[in-house]
Design a protein that fits this description.
Layout: H1 38-61, H2 67-75, H3 83-93, H4 98-101, H5 116-124, H6 136-156, H7 166-177, H8 179-190, H9 203-209, H10 212-219, H11 221-230, H12 238-242, H13 252-263, H14 269-280, H15 282-287, H16 292-300, H17 308-321, H18 324-331, H19 342-349, H20 354-359, H21 361-375, H22 385-397, H23 403-412
Helix pairs in contact: 1-2, 5-6, 6-7, 6-8, 7-8, 10-11, 10-14, 14-17, 17-22, 21-23
Length: 423
């Protein structure tokens, strides 16, 4: 691996609940909702979709913007629903001011940029990341913009180092937001969530990958032991992690749904999602020959028909049950990692209301007690939806923020060797 205009992604990116495949995998769950028909199911989804759209609009309309509610909407079923919604909400999740997004991007000198040749090669290979049937002229124009965004962010932030796969993340923002807004959001993302991937070395990236096996071990020791015996390691998940799955998923709807989720959560959430993919494929893994090459090949070929909503929900559950602080020693994490400074970024992006904090200070104590009790229960059963959102927000999104920010979030969540990594 080398170091070195809104809505263009396809318009309505709504997601529906995927149906898990049958089988006896421990982490797979089914819901008993009584008799239903496709028509009734569609009506129910349309009703929930309209209600969610109204809730997102309401959260955007108040002053200050209700960022905690927007996070909840991005995490919950269906995510942010459309690219138009993402254009409004993603900047709020990343705390990018409107005046920054409105700035005209500066011209970039390509030939004198040390990363230009590698960026150009990667962008030229990004053909499949654009919507099928897009006219060549339009796609080529977007590829030019993609190159400029990457070089512009690197020029503004010389401490950042380009890595192969970075363009897979940038192109997603470009297709959803357009060049101007994508530039602003990608720069913020690169200095926060992606910061560890953009170091001169891959040390911090390896540290993040080290969280994968402890998560798997806590949920399914049999799968963990099998992978350890096969000596497969974690490199199969590298391209998943550093591209936020953009490189390995062919359906753009699934990519942006995951981006909704990741932008609303802790920077380590992608590694939890990687873990639930492995756990979901328990039967395939255990049926595979216990050989490093065979297991690596199986795991690196990610299925395209995953039950994304189920896995997103499961990743959130596991984050709450096994937070990074519990896994840090096993993962040999580095205090200098961006994940350890997430609380500073999260605090900056949360619009606080001091009067609300004072009124709800008493509730904070009770919430802290409930969180402590929940974290002490080593169970993998799924909490109720309302409780799960509260716990995920409290333990994941506001870790160590202190009483004030904790009270604000609570008030918003009351309803319950060389491998071919980039083929």
């Amino acid at each position: 691996m080398s170091r070195g205009s809104p809505g263009r992604g396809g318009g309505d990116m709504s997601s529906s609940e995927d149906t898990p495949r049958g089988g006896g995998v421990k982490m797979r769950t089914t819901r008993s909702s009584g008799p239903s028909t496709p028509v009734n199911g569609r009506r129910d989804w349309d009703s929930r979709r309209k209600r969610k759209t109204a809730d997102i609009t309401q959260a955007l309309s108040v002053s200050p913007v209700d960022v905690a509610a927007l996070r909840r909407m991005a995490i919950s079923e269906g995510g942010l629903l459309t690219d138009e919604m993402r254009c409004e909400v993603w900047p709020r999740l990343l705390n990018v001011p409107l005046q920054v997004m409105d700035q005209e991007p500066e011209t970039v000198e390509r030939e004198n940029n040390k990363d230009y040749n590698q960026v150009l090669l990667d962008v030229q290979r990004s053909l499949r990341r654009f919507p099928p049937g897009m006219p060549d002229e339009q796609r080529e124009g977007l590829q030019e913009e993609l190159t400029d965004i990457i070089l512009r962010v690197l020029k503004r932030n010389p401490q950042l180092h380009y890595y192969q796969g970075y363009h897979d993340i940038v192109v997603t923002f470009l297709l959803v937001l357009g060049e101007r807004r994508a530039t602003a959001l990608v720069e913020k993302l690169s200095t926060h969530h992606l910061r560890d991937f953009m170091d001169p070395t891959m040390d911090n990236t390896k540290h993040i990958l080290n969280y994968l096996m402890p998560i798997i071990e806590r949920v399914n020791p049999e799968v963990h032991d099998f992978m350890q015996q096969a000596e497969v390691g974690t490199v199969f998940a590298l391209s998943w992690l550093i591209t936020w799955f953009g490189h390995v998923l062919s359906d753009f709807r699934h990519v942006v749904r995951l981006y909704d989720f990741f932008l609303a959560c802790h920077p380590l959430m992608p590694i939890y999602f990687a873990a639930v993919i492995v756990l979901y494929r328990e039967e395939e893994v255990l049926d595979c020959e216990c050989d490093m090459a065979m297991v690596h090949h199986l795991l690196s070929q990610i299925p395209q028909d995953l039950p994304y909503e189920t896995l997103i929900s499961r990743a959130g559950d596991l984050f709450v049950q096994f937070p990074p602080s519990e896994l840090a020693k096993e993962a040999a994490s580095d205090d200098g990692m961006a994940t350890s400074t997430f609380k500073d970024f999260d605090l900056a992006s949360t619009q606080q209301r001091p009067d609300s904090v004072l009124r709800r200070r008493r509730r904070q104590k009770q919430a802290a007690l409930e969180s402590a009790a929940a974290s002490s229960v080593a169970t993998v059963t799924r909490p109720s939806a309302a409780r799960r959102f509260v716990r995920l927000a409290v333990m994941g999104l506001t870790m160590a923020l202190g009483a004030a920010a904790l009270a604000v979030v609570n008030s918003a969540l009351e309803w319950a060797p060389k491998l071919d990594l980039f083929p």
